[in-house]
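Honest question from a wet-lab person: if I give you the sequences of every part of a complex, can you actually get the arrangement of the whole thing, not just the pieces? Trying it with mine:
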Amino acid sequence: MKKIDALIIGAGPTGLFTAHQLSLIGLNCEIVDNLDKIGGQCIELYPDKPIYDIPAIPECTGEELTNNLINQLKPFNIKFHMSERVDEVKNNSGNWEVKTSKGTKFSTPNVIIAGGVGSFEPRKFAPKECEKYENKTIFYSVKDKSIFKGKTVSIFGGGDSALDWAIELSKNSKINLIHRRDEFRGAQSSVDKVKELEKEGKISLFTHYQLKNVKGSNNLESIEIEHDNKELKNIKTDYILGFFGLIMQLGPIVDWGLNLDKKTIAVDTEKFETNQKGIYAVGDISSYPGKLKLILSGFHEGALAARACFKLARPNEKYRFEFTTSSKTIKNRLGVKE
Amino acid sequence: MAKITYIENNGKSHTIDVANGLSVMEGAVQNNITGIDADCGGSMACATCHVYVKEEWFDKLPKKEDGEEDMLDMAFEPKKFSRLSCQLMVSDDLDGLVVNLPTKQV
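Yes, you can. This is the full assembly:
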């Protein structure tokens, strides 16, 4: 079990800047995020979209903002735990014991939830029968492509993931690519490649179709797909892959005894603390009267929550407010030479 | 102002006066209509404000802009008359609009 001053859940802009604020005032922290990349929604949803309301930055993309925040954190060597979801948060005589999906354990007086709109999970197929085959023959991501060798794989979706996997797996498998319309949002070069492979007979393309049902007993045997005009088609298949992007779900957070308001967590506006002492919520996931879901609000909330963390992490010390322009201590922490 | 009718998947119907300039999504969220999540807050990034527009209304609405159809690929059970309600801006022209809500958003 790792003992730390604060644990941050969420590596989006708010989580990153909160880590910076904690480090500036001399507290150590680590960050856990369910995604495999740092940046949260900025990277997952709009890496290329320009943002115009970050103070002092007239225009930047989600990716640029994330890179700048990562650079700003460099002096502090923050440890990130990516592709890990915080599953359990339990109180043990004043400290929070936290366990992640990979079994990493922390003990800390402060947990800061900077979770945006929850954790990203793959969007799944609509028919209920699909659950039975999930992670056996129905997948929403590819972990081991060797299992598809020599098999028939039906891929659903119209984005880059669907196209890229259709192209890649067509080398060793029979591929059906099924999409709800005849336009694809993936890269044009991939679309061209798929059409080429269709001509060569390596990919069967079914557009204007969606999954209606899956059939089989213990093993998946076939899928039934439905055309916009209601016509049904039955296709034999060994595996199904669905690439419909990600959705955001609050996930295990609902079980931590916090006051929830729809998909947000109620906090005070002094410490951004929840109804549980030492658990804070900042950024989009927090709610209080007048809350604005802006990145700049998350920065402010993180800065204040960090000061509140100091009291619990250093109960015998007094927090001194200092400016980065003048404080020697802070400059030392930043590694700046005078 | 436009009267907009939201019909939940269980058949429960809500008719609400929505001010011009708001989106059909905001009209639902501000009036606590369950069935429209709008996780991303209207930035066309999540497809959780997905609605089925009544057929006779579909062609009267402003056409989808780039990106909406892409997001609809990710919606739960998209159909022919699917729209993202965050992209439907309310004006007097939308008076009487009826939208059906999907069984779920995620």
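Two things worth pointing out. The mean pLDDT of chain A is 94. The domain at 2-121+247-334 of chain A is CATH 3.50.50.60 (FAD/NAD(P)-binding domain).
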